[in-house]
Amino acid sequence: MRVSAWLVCLSLLSTPALAGNDITTAQNVIRAQEQALARDDGPAAYAQAAPEIQARFPSIEIFMAMVREGYPPVYRHKSFEFGPSQVEDGSIAQRVHIVDADGEAWEALYTLQTQPDGSLKITGCSLLKVGQAV
After folding, report:
1. How far apart are CA 79 and CA 57, in angstroms?
2. Residue 69's domain spans which residues?
3. Do residues 63 and 125 touch, judged by C-beta distance below 8 A?
4. Whether the Cβ atoms of residue 121 and residue 51 lie closer than 8 Å to each other
5. Which among 83, 102, 82, 98 is positioned nearest to 130, based on CA atoms?
6. 2 burial class (0-12, 13-18, 19+ CB within 10 angstroms)?
7. Burial of 67 (0-12, 13-18, 19+ CB in 10 A)
8. Is residue 134 part of a domain?
9. What is the pLDDT of residue 132?
10. 90 found inside a domain
């Protein structure tokens, strides 16, 4: 994600969270994926991804390889704690504080969107190493 897009997303998180039930649901979706990844349960992790993500990574094996290679702090970590969130027009941005397996701090920004069936699915995740210059 480009730095300017990251900053725009972070600015959205500075306002108070709306719709507490939506936030709780979003955190449950993210947590379900995080726990599935910890168990190497590809089908359960993949099930939390939005159809657009599944289209870009059209099999569980391809999706899991992308997570392992592109998102090691999400795949394996020491801690994973929710930070601020924002709800707007059926979309949710949720910040997550992560400490990776090597003890390095990261900020993840998950985006989720309400699907036609009313469920929430993960539409993206951006990582920024804490202390990294923007």
Report:
1. 26
2. 3-129
3. no
4. yes
5. 98
6. exposed
7. buried
8. no
9. 62
10. yes
Pairing status of strand 91-100 against strand 105-114: antiparallel
Helix or strand holding residue 100 (H, E): strand 91-100
CA neighbor of 27 nearest in space, from 69, 87, 75: 87
Q: Which of 127, 133, 131, 120 is nearest to 28 (CA)?
A: 120
Could you tell me if residue 66 is inside a domain? yes
Q: What is the CATH number of the domain that holds 95?
A: 3.10.450.630
pLDDT in tens, 39-84: 999 999 999 999 999 999 999 999 999 999 999 999 999 999 999 9
Give pLDDT, residue 57: 98
Pick the closest to residue 124 from 86, 67, 68, 73 (CA basis). 67
pLDDT band at 91 (very low <50, low <70, confident <90, very high): very high
Q: Is 78 within a domain?
A: yes
Q: Tokens at residue 66, please?
A: 């992308």
Domain count, the chain: 1
Tokens describing residue 80:
């994973």
